Amino acid sequence: MAEVEETLKRIQTQKGVQGIIIVTAEGIPIRSTLDNASTVQYAGLIQQLVMKARVTVREMDPQNDLTFLRIRSKKNEIMIAPDKDYFLIIL
Amino acid sequence: MMASKRPKSTGDKKNDSADSAGSSTELGLPDDIFPLVLTSGTQELFECRVDKDVTRESPYKILRKEEILKDMKTRAAVSDFHPIKQTVLNYPGEELLLMFDRDFTCGQNFYLVLTEESKKRILEPPVSAREDTAEGTSLDSPPCKTPECQPWVSLGSEREIEEESVRDSRPRLKYRISRVRRKFGAPVTFTDCNAQESKDKYTECTSYDDRKFSIERMEITTGVQAVPTLRSISTQTRWTYPRNMCSQYEFREFTEEEKENIANSENFRNFVNSVVSRFEVAAQQNMIFDVFFNDWQALHEEDGIFGGKVETHLKEYQSFTDLHFTKEKTISDINWHPTINGLIAVSVMEKLSSEGKINGSAKLLQNPPLIFFWSFSDPINPQLLLECPDDVLSFQFCPSNPNIIVGGCMNGQVVLWDVSAHADRLQGTRSAAGKATSANECALPAFQDKRELNTPVVRYCAVSGVENGHKARITDVQWLPENFEISKAGIPVENKAHICVQVITCAPDCCVMFWDIRLPRVTTHSLTERKPKVTETPHLNRSDVPNTFKHLDLSWKPFIKVALPKKGTGAEYSPLKFSLRDNINDNQTGGSTETSEQNLEKSEGGTEYALLRASSAKQLKPLEDISTRFYIGTQDGEVVYTDWKMEKDNDSGRLLSTKPSHCFLVHDGFINSVRRSPFFKDIILTVGGWTFAIWKEGVMNGPIIHSSCSPKKCTVGYWSPSRPGLFFIGKEDGNVEVWDLLEKTHEASQTQNLSTTQITCIKPWIVPPKQHFLAVSDHSGTLHILEVPWSLRSPSYNEKSNMAKYFEKEVDRLIFLNKRKEMRAKEKKDKEAEEQKKKMEPKMPEKLEEQIEEENLVHYKTYLAMEKVILKNMGLLSDEEPALN
C-alpha cells in the first residue's frame, strides 16, 4: 500500500506531470490528483477511447494487446496505460 | 326433234315464206339467192349447224362446190341441195356462200347465194359498209344522203312487245261498300280491350329457339385495357401527446470504503508496478526531446530573410501638408498619439536663420505658431490646432493622460495644453468616416457642417513664467514615467498617484530643469501668503481655455535645476537632448495601450491637477533601482553622462548638482538625437554632425560603435521599435537611411530619398496588428508617413540575442583597444624614458672591464633563473631535478 503511494508520488513529482487518475475498467475513478469534475470527465471519455483502441489492436491480431496509449495535443499530452482491470491516466 | 319440228314450222311458214319469197323477189333480191333448207344432218356435214357454227353474227358459211356435188351424189334426192342441183353445177366459182337466214327473210333458214357477184356483194358490202362506217366517209363517200323515211317493216318484234305489255285481260270490276245510313254520325263508344284476351285480335310471332339454327361466334371485337390492380389501405398510428420529461444522472463513484478496498488489493499493486515502468520510458522520451517544439514554424522564421527582395523599401503611405500654415515653415517635432491610432501631432516653426528670427519676430504675433494634429482619415484638414506662445521645438503627450501635452518654446517657456474637451473629436477620427461618428448629433445639418469644418484651435492653458524658465530655447521636453517621481533633492521616490506629474526640460542655457505640474507643497509661510496672490492675479482668460493648470499659469517654476559644469574648466555644457535610463516614454508603441488605458481610467476618475500637491520627500519611499544618471548630448558635439542628484555642498549648505562623470567629444557637430534602444536599456544612439555613435552605459571608454563620416550631415536618428538591430538615420539631403547592424556596419543597408530638404524628425509607430509606420518630417514642412515593409519590421530569428552578443563583442573590442592604447602609451613612455636615459648615458664614466664582466655574470645568472622558472611553468622540468648551473 505504502509503496503504491510512493510510486504514485514519484510519478507525480516528475517534470511536466499535471495529474494522475486511476480508473477501473468500467470507468469509475479510484484515485485522482485532480478535482472531481475533471476526473470524472476524463475517466468517462478515456475509458471509451481505450476500449476502442484495444478492440482495434485485438482485431488486427488476436494475440496482440494494447500496452500504452499516448495522446499528444497542442497544449499537453495524455498518457494511458491499460491493464486487465484498471487504467492509469497521466496528464 | 328440232329439225323435224322446224320443217314443220317452216312448213307452216313455208307458205308464208313462199309468199314472202315471192315477195322477196319483189323486194329486189336477185335470183341468185335461193332459200334452202338444210337438215340437221346436212348441217352437221357441212358444219353449219344452227347457232353453233353459224350464228346471227356470222351467218356466212362458204361451201365447196365439190362437196355439195358429192353430197348430191351420195344422197341423191334426199340431199337438200337437190332442188338447186342445176344451179350448183352451173356455178362458176368453186365456192358457194351459204347464208344463214335466221329471220327467214328468204323463206328458209338458209339461203344459198348463186352467183359470184352477189356473193361478193354480200360479203364485201357489209365489209365495205363496215369499213365505211369505221373510216368515216373516206373510201367511198358519196355526199351524205339524208335517210329517207321508209315505211315500217315489221320484222317480228311486235310479238314481243305484245307479250310484254300489260293489258287488262278483263274489264275491271267495281264494288261499292257502304254502311247503313243510320249508323252515320251515331255516338260512338270506345272501350279498352285487352289484346291478349281474344286471340283473334292479334297474331304474334314469338321467337323460339330454333335448334337447327345455331351460329357459332367465331369472332368478336372487344376492347381490352390493362389496369393495375389498385388497393386502398389505411392505417392509423396511435397518437401520443408530448410530455415534458427530464432525467438526471450522476457519475458512478465508489464510496471511500470501496476505494480503500480496491487500493489495498493485491491486484492493484501489481498493476501499478507493471504500469509505472512504461511511464518512465515515456517520461524519459519527453525529457530528451521537446515534443511541443514546432520545427516547421521555427524554420519559417529564418526563411523570411531569404524570402527574396520583395519589399525592402519604405512605402509612402500618406503625406500631410497644410497649405495655409506650413508654407515656409519646418517641422520641429513629431509625436504619435499614444492611444488613438492614426493620429499624429506635428509642431511647426519658422525656418528663418537666427538673424531672420530677430528681425521677423513681429510676424509671430500675427501668425501664431501651431501644433497640428493630423489624422489618417483626413489628409487635408488637420483635426486640431494647438496655439503656442512661441515656436515649439519639442513637445510630448503625457503618457498617463494623452490629453495633456507639454511643450518647450523658443523663448524658454514651458507650455501645457489640455485637449480633453476635444477628446471625442479626436477619438472620432479613428474611423474613416470621422464625421459620422461625431458625438454631437445636431438636428440642423447646416450647423453641424460648419462646426466640423473649422478646425478647433486650442489655446495653451498654462505657461511657465519667462523669468523662471530657461534662458534659451528649450530643445527637449520629456515626461517622467508614472512609476516614480523626483523629490526636491533629486532622489527618485515612488509615485503614489501613478500618473505622470513631472517634466524634464533641457536647453542650451546649460541647465536641465525638472518641473512638477502640481503645486509645490506648502512649506513656508511665504508660500501661503503667495497663494492668494496667485489666484488674484488677473489673467486674460479666454472662455474656451480649460482651467486644468490654472494654478501653474505664469508662475510655474522648476523645482530642480541641474547645472552642467564642465570638468576642469569653469564652462558649462549646453545640452540639446537627453535620455534617461528608466524613461519608458522614450519608445512608445501602440501596443502599450493597456497601461495607458488604465491610466486614462484613473485620470478620468477625476484627478484635479490643481488639487494635487507635491508630497514631502520624507513620506515617500525612495526607489533604489531607478538610476539617476542620464546621458546628455550637447551643442558642441559632446556626450555627457551625468547624475541629476543634488548633493549637498558642505561649504554653503546648498544643494548643488554633481559634476558630470564622463564626457566624450565624439561628434563634429551639435548632437540632435540621443535615444535609448527599446530592447536594451543600456544601449544609446547618439547622432550628431556627420556621424552617429552607439554607447553602452557602463562602458565609459568611448562609444562601442562609431560610424564613419558620411558625406552628408546626419540630422536625426531613431531606433526601430520592433527589430533590435535596426535604426533609422535622417540626412541633410532628405535621405532616410536604414542601418542594420547585423547586416552591415560600415554603411547603411538601405537608403531612400524622401524629399529635397533635410529630414528634421523621424518617429516610428506600430499600429497593431502588424502595421508599422514611420513618420518622417522634412524641412519644407511636409510630414510623410511611410509604411515599414515586413523585412524591416520583423526581427530575424534570435535577433535580440545576436545583437546582445554583438554589442558585447564591441565592448570587448573597445576594452581591448583601450588596453592596447594604454600599452602603447606606456611603451611610448618607456621608449622615451629610455631615450632619455641613453642621452644621459654617455655622460657617465666608462665602467671598468671587470665591472662589465661582473655585470654580465649577474645577467647570465638571472637569465638562468628565468629559464628555470619558465621550464617549471611549462612542466618540462620537475622540481626534484637540480637546477643546471
From TrEMBL, chain A:
PANTHER family in the record: DYNEIN LIGHT CHAIN ROADBLOCK (PTHR10779)
Query: Mind listing the UniProt keywords for this protein, alphabetically?
Result: Cytoplasm, Cytoskeleton, Dynein, Microtubule, Motor protein, Transport
**Record's Pfam families?**
Robl_LC7
Cross-referenced InterPro entries: DYNLRB1/2 (IPR016561), Roadblock/LAMTOR2_dom (IPR004942)
The keyword Transport belongs to this UniProt entry's keyword annotation = yes
**Native organism:** Paramormyrops kingsleyae
Location relative to the cell: Cytoplasm, Cytoskeleton
Could you tell me what this protein does? Acts as one of several non-catalytic accessory components of the cytoplasmic dynein 1 complex that are thought to be involved in linking dynein to cargos and to adapter proteins that regulate dynein function. Cytoplasmic dynein 1 acts as a motor for the intracellular retrograde motility of vesicles and organelles along microtubules.
In terms of superkingdom, the source organism counts as: Eukaryota
Q: Name one GO cellular component term.
A: cytoplasmic dynein complex
Q: What is its main location?
A: cytoplasm
Q: Where is the Roadblock/LAMTOR2 domain?
A: 4-91
Spell out the molecular function terms from Gene Ontology.
dynein intermediate chain binding
Q: Give the record's GO biological process terms.
A: microtubule-based movement
Q: What is this protein called?
A: Dynein light chain roadblock
User: What family classification does the UniProt entry report for this protein?
Assistant: Belongs to the GAMAD family.
TrEMBL record, chain B:
Q: Which UniProt keywords apply?
A: Cytoplasm, Repeat, WD repeat
Task: Please name the GO terms of the biological process aspect recorded for this protein, alphabetically.
Answer: cilium movement involved in cell motility; inner dynein arm assembly
Which residues fall in a compositionally biased region of kind Basic and acidic residues? 124-133
- Entry's localization field: Cytoplasm
Q: Does the keyword Membrane apply?
A: no
The segment annotated Disordered runs over 1-26, 124-145, 584-603, 825-848
Comp. bias intervals (Polar residues):
585-598
Q: Which Pfam families match?
A: WD40
Q: Name one GO molecular function term.
A: dynein light chain binding
> Got a GO cellular component term for this one?
inner dynein arm
- Indicate where this protein is primarily found: cytoplasm
Sorted alphabetically, which SMART domains does this protein's record hold? WD40 (SM00320)
Name the record gives this protein: Dynein axonemal intermediate chain 3
Identify the taxonomic lineage of the organism of origin: Eukaryota, Metazoa, Chordata, Craniata, Vertebrata
